[in-house]
Amino acid sequence: MEIVQDRAALVAAAGATIARGSKSFAAASKLFDRETRERAWLLYAWCRACDDIADAQDLGHDQQKVTDPQARIARIRDNTAMALAGKPTGDAAFDGLAVVVAETAMPRRFIDDHIAGFALDADEWRPRSENDLLRYCYHVAGVVGCMMAVVMGVPPQDDATLDRACDLGLAFQLANIARDIEEDDRSGRCYLPEEWLVEMDFPPGQHMKPPFRKRLTVLSRRLADMAEGYEASARLGTPALSYRSAWAVLAAADIYGGIARKVAAAGDHAWDHRVTTTKAEKLAAIARAGAQAAGRVKLYPPAARDAELWTRPRG
User: φ, ψ for residue 155 (rounded to 5)?
Assistant: First the structure.
């Protein structure tokens, strides 16, 4: 594939996107070596652009009511296909994805699986079961973990390491869902499985109402506990990575894991304001991750992945 765009300009645009779009990921990405960091930025920019197109938002903010969801998914698919065919799209985020694919052994199925997550939202899909929830989390975040692992040099055939990378993406998304229950409700979305809502005896569409806050807290803590389990599994994959990649992954795990832990600790007040991590907390997580990465072989010895965890689909 011939990449005709100015790579340096695409990287600069992607760096600006991640700096504005996610302070947590931006902080962790600085720990990569330069080549990996640039590819991670390019991949992030494409994921961010797809999300923004699908939800009519700007860098994850100011989401608008979408009246043409299928047309938006078609635009994502068309721009992605054009970029992967080596044709300039006029959008740096999509053109940057072509650079990542050209420079790595990125499987096309991962790209398609991620787009399928946006299509689920466009179809106003809702999870019925916990398995449905985890399948959704795979499409919107777990597969991004797989793509990031490939960016870090993990062979696409290394299913064991990719499973651990997927676990980290699942942990991130479960934390997001726990944190954003109120925000999602305002957008007309709910990612809590219907079976969970029935179990807690919520009246239909009433899970955010004040009288049911304690029941909602039970489910948010369940999400946080699930996130913690997948985070722990993901850490066991870091010995397969270089020191700097492991450092970045462990820092991101700590920073995002901190969000899930804060949601759980806040209990009934978890949605009074949006849970975030402070700059000091990010720096502390980075410092801890550096020591963990240095000792990762001893800290995270080889172990079979927990058979109780959800497993991503194979290509």
Answer: -65, 140
Burial of 64 (0-12, 13-18, 19+ CB in 10 A): exposed
Burial 273-299 (b: 16+ CB within 10 A, else e): eebebeeebbeebbeebbebbeebeee
Query: Which tens digits make up the pLDDT trace of 181-218?
Result: 998 998 888 999 999 999 999 998 889 998 899 999 99
Distance, CA of 138 to CA of 165 (rounded, Å): 11
CB contact at 8 A, 42 and 136: no
The three-class DSSP label of residue 6 is coil
| Under 8 Å between Cβ of 240 and 161 | yes
DSSP assignment of 81-139, as one string? Answer: HHHHTT---S-HHHHHHHHHHHHS---HHHHHHHHHHHHHHHTT---SSHHHHHHHHII
First to last CA, the chain: 23
pTM assigned to the model: 0.93
Residue 242 and residue 154: Cα distance in Å, rounded? 10
**What single-letter amino acid sits at 154?**
V
Q: How far apart are CA 59 and CA 90, in angstroms?
A: 18
The CA distances from residue 193 to 61, 131, 168, 204, 314, in Å, are 25, 9, 21, 12, 24
- pLDDT tens string 12-70: 999 999 998 888 788 888 999 999 999 999 999 999 999 999 988 666 555 567 778 99
CA distance 139 to 118: 8
From the list 44, 10, 11, 8, the residue with the least C-alpha distance to 26 is: 44
Between CA 268 and CA 290 the distance in angstroms is: 34
Spatial distance between the Cα atoms of 134 and 171, rounded to a whole number of angstroms: 10
Output phi, psi for 62, to 5 deg.
Answer: 55, 45
- Sign, Cα dihedral of 62, 248, 229, 146: positive
d(CA 313, CA 113): 10
**β-bridge partners, 61:** 58
